[in-house]
Amino acid sequence: MEKITVAWFDDTKNAILCTYNQEGWTWDDFYLALQQQKALIETVDHPKVHIIVDVRKSTWLPKGGSLLTGLKKTTHDHHPRQGEIIIVGARGMVASIASTISNLMTSSRMEMHFAAKMEEVPALLNQLETARP
Predict the structure, then answer these.
(1) SS (H, E, C) 28-57
(2) Cβ pair 56, 90 in contact under 8 A
(3) HEC string of the chain?
(4) pTM of structure
(5) Cβ of 80: how many Cβ atoms within 10 Å?
(6) CA 95 to CA 72: how far, in whole Å?
């Protein structure tokens, strides 16, 4: 099983589900997943495609490397039609780190939202879609 899998969340293709399947993923795994997300976004003509990040089975941060290097890559190497990010399953220290990162990334217009369970995601996606100008 791949450490990170990337697939459409559902048949509407308005959101991509990026699942972190196990501990021990690296920045290289992350960058590969990022490229896969960009490739999927290219297959549709939606104005925005949201990213759902499921970290319920993993840590939210990779092994090795610098967090700042990864953040820089993320903010400069995302698809122009990438929408907002929903993180599912971030808890404790991970949720605190994610919240801090979200605040740092608002200048790059990459907002993060949080859900404790996957069942909360459809309602969040609906809110994002109806709030779109």
Answers:
(1) HHHHHHHHHHHHHHHCCCCCCEEEEEECCC
(2) no
(3) CCCEEEEECCCCCCEEEEEECCCCCEHHHHHHHHHHHHHHHHCCCCCCEEEEEECCCCCCCCECCCHHHHHHHHHHCCCCCEEEEEEECCCHHHHHHHHHHHHHHHHHCCCEEEECCHHHHHHHHHHHHHHCC
(4) 0.83
(5) 7
(6) 20
The pLDDT, as a whole number, for residue 73 is: 60
**Looking at residues 92-96, what average pLDDT do you find?**
58
pLDDT at 125: 93
Q: What is the spatial distance between Cα 14 and Cα 45, in angstroms, rounded to a whole number?
A: 10
Those residues whose C-beta lies under 8 Å from the C-beta of residue 50, and which sit 6 or more positions away, are 14, 15, 16, 82, 83, 84, 85, 86, 125, 128
Beta bridge partners of 112: 85
| Dihedral pair phi/psi, residue 84, rounded to 5° | -85, 165
Tell me the two tokens of residue 63: 């092994």
Query: Would the pLDDT of 100 be above 70?
Result: no
Q: How far is CA 56 from CA 77, 88, 116, in A?
A: 25, 7, 9
Average pLDDT, the chain: 82
